[in-house]
From TrEMBL:
Keywords: Repeat
Domain annotation Nephrocystin 3-like N-terminal: ranges: 50-214
Entries under InterPro entries matching the protein: NPHP3-like_N, P-loop_NTPase
Gene source species: Paxillus rubicundulus Ve08.2h10
The name this protein goes by in its record: Nephrocystin 3-like N-terminal domain-containing protein
Pfam families in UniProt: NPHP3_N (PF24883)
Repeat keyword on record: yes
UniProt keyword Cytoplasm, yes or no: no
Length: 275
């Protein structure tokens, strides 16, 4: 009899896990999130070993890892913001991994190279963040189940407002949550994105928010009214990365490498002054 009772219990638990997995698959298919790891791989493929190490050891970054707050990096085109962002993703992944489900982590790369691309959409970011934060948990958060309307039949497409509200509820379920966004300037709804970021900052005590962008006026003006740490990239700050890049990609004399280094720094200064 004891064996039978144990066997029945195991069957119930197996059925429960199967139902949970089926629900997980249903909601994920319905949400249809973008896979941010595809963009991350592209950035890591052009990463040069040794570059970005200055940032990983920068006290401003280390403090942001330890304490909730907002950290932003700005720089003109060609300053390597996306590759540096990918290095930050790797650093945060290492930091949050051992903490388990009490710590949330999500990242997104905006990409405006193709006009009208879904990677310019604020909604794409929201869907991706919900997937990253909800589907890496032992159980799907109740807020996500309500959005999907588990007990309903139709499961209509959610509005941007509903996605935003649900994400706001989900992030509060973590002791700490790390949200990373690359290229704010490439979002086609900057006002909506910046407003959401401001709301998230004011309603999420454990939020660690990191963002990169070009120094565009609307972003600079908005961020000037919010509490955050700002790092502006410059040719001097990237001096070590330039040297590492040239050393690994160019076979030349030390004199020629020195000339190339100065030329690259000059181009970065021109780009920065032109913004």
């Amino acid at each position: 009899m004891a064996y039978t009772a144990k066997h029945i219990k195991e069957m119930h638990e197996h059925a429960k896990r199967k139902d949970a997995q089926e629900l997980f698959n249903e909601i994920r298919k319905w949400l249809n999130p973008h896979n941010a790891s595809v963009n991350h791989k592209s950035a890591r493929d052009i990463f040069v070993e040794g570059t970005g190490s200055w940032f990983r050891t920068d006290e401003r970054f280390l403090k942001w890892l330890r304490e909730p707050g907002t950290l932003r990096i700005s720089g003109g085109p060609g300053f390597g913001k996306t590759v540096l962002f990918s290095t930050t993703v790797e650093g945060v992944r290492e930091h949050t991994g051992p903490r388990g489900s009490s710590c949330g982590f999500a990242y997104f790369y905006f990409d405006g190279r193709e006009s009208g691309s879904t990677l310019q959409k604020f909604e794409t970011l929201l869907r991706s963040f919900l997937a990253q934060l909800c589907f890496n948990q032992p159980e799907i958060p109740d807020a996500m189940k309500r959005l999907y309307d588990v007990d309903g039949k139709d499961h209509p497409e959610p509005t941007v407002s509903q996605l935003r509200t649900t994400l706001g509820e989900v992030v509060k379920g973590f002791d700490d949550v790390y949200i990373l966004i690359d290229a704010l300037d490439e979002c086609d709804s900057q006002a909506g994105l910046l407003d959401w970021m401001n709301s998230l900052q004011s309603t999420t005590p454990g939020l660690h928010l990191f963002a990169t962008s070009r120094p565009e006026r609307i972003i600079e003006e908005f961020m000037s009214n919010s509490r955050h740490v700002h790092i502006s990239l410059s040719s001097e700050l990237l001096d070590g990365d330039i040297t590492t890049y040239i050393d690994q990609h160019v076979e030349a004399s030390n004199d020629l490498k020195s000339l190339m280094k100065e030329e690259m720094k000059k181009k970065l200064r021109v780009k920065g002054d032109g913004m």
